Amino acid sequence: MSALRSRWPSWLILGLGFAFLYLPVFLLMVYSFNESRLATVWSGFSFKWYGELFRDRQMLAAAWISIKVAFWTATAAVVLGTMAALAMTRMRSFPSKTLFGALITAPLVMPEVIIGLSLLLMFVSLGELLNMTPKGIMAIWIAHVTFTLAFVTVVVSSRLSELDKSLEEAAMDLGANRIKVFFLITLPIIAPALVSGWLLAFTLSLDDVVIASFVAGPSSTTLPMKVFSSVRLGLSPKINALATLMIVVVSLAAFLGWWLMYREEKRRQRDMQMALQDNG
After folding, report:
1. Residue 170 and residue 164: Cα distance in Å, rounded?
2. 3-state secondary structure of 120
3. Residue 53 · residue 241 · CB < 8 Å
4. What is the mean pLDDT of residues 72-93?
């Protein structure tokens, strides 16, 4: 009993911290069911703003563009980030390895305004040389891959650095080549890191406003850009409904990622226990 009494300040601080983080989100979700046109004045329970949201073709088009860009951004970032992580952790030394690592992780500390402006200048220069449009969905995708690649590389590199290399060496001693070892040994072990990196890249791409504002064209407005422009003109209850749907989708995706990582970790621990028993 005395131990619980001594810990109540810690629990209080923890509760206040969670309330500070999640109470505004909870209130936003509650007011998405508000009947009033004023987003902050409660007048009754209603689903009408969800109907208004699904009838807003511009908002739905922006959401579809953001989802497509985020999906392909996360997929490309995981592939390129895994390759970069393998080069940084598996190749003992190669020319300019330090410079390579610095260039890969530079977007982590570089302001998004600088990234967006530099990419815009590059796309304009390439557009003049190749006679192509410097802005659009393709430009947003390339910019987001450049931005999220650093985050995926850091996540996968940390997992690869902790990987027991004796497993890979044992597989190669049994006759497997490096490609087969990667797909049968390395890839299943680092799968949780790949899922985490994919979800992180997807979220960062879906949430980006600054970089997309530089490289987006007239017909490639993303959802965050649309929401930002709508909020500047006044807070609409449709934004609350949209935010609620996004919170639900992201929460389900995060839960799915956690469940996949938990299942993979349990399977790995079970395989290790069985291997130890066989060796014993």
Report:
1. 11
2. helix
3. yes
4. 89
